[in-house]
Design a protein that fits this description.
This protein has helices at 8-17, 38-46, 68-72; strands at residues 26-32, 49-55, 58-63, 77-82. The chain is an alpha+beta fold and 97 residues long. The protein has a four-stranded antiparallel beta sheet. Strand 2 and strand 3 (58-63) form a beta hairpin. The longest helix has 10 residues, at 8-17. The N and C termini lie far apart (50 Å).
């Protein structure tokens, strides 16, 4: 595994995956070197990720915790981070001023 290719949230999630119940897949963002072509998508899929959408040099994907390390070994993969909401739900309604 190439830990330098993992974002901090992905590293934390991977370290906590052993404690989790069941192999819940991670939703990830993968930055690739250059524009993602069919060959890059194939290599990423062979590493265990199910590739979704592409936007420039970033792909969305679903990957099992056990395959995250293999994904970082793919040459075309520059960086992997967990897909997280920009504004996580806090469960609280905004206060009226």
């Amino acid at each position: 595994m190439r830990a330098d290719k993992l974002g901090s949230a992905a590293r934390r999630a991977l370290s906590n995956a052993d404690e989790a119940l069941g192999p819940t897949p991670f939703q990830v963002l993968i930055r690739v070197k250059g524009e993602p072509g069919e060959e890059q998508r194939r290599q990423i899929a062979e590493a265990g990720a199910r590739v979704g959408l592409a936007a420039g040099d970033v792909l969305t994907a679903t990957v099992a915790p056990g395959d995250l390390g293999r994904l970082t070994e793919v040459d075309c993969v520059a960086y992997v981070e967990l897909s997280e909401p920009l504004h996580p739900e806090t469960g609280a309604w905004p206060q009226k001023q």
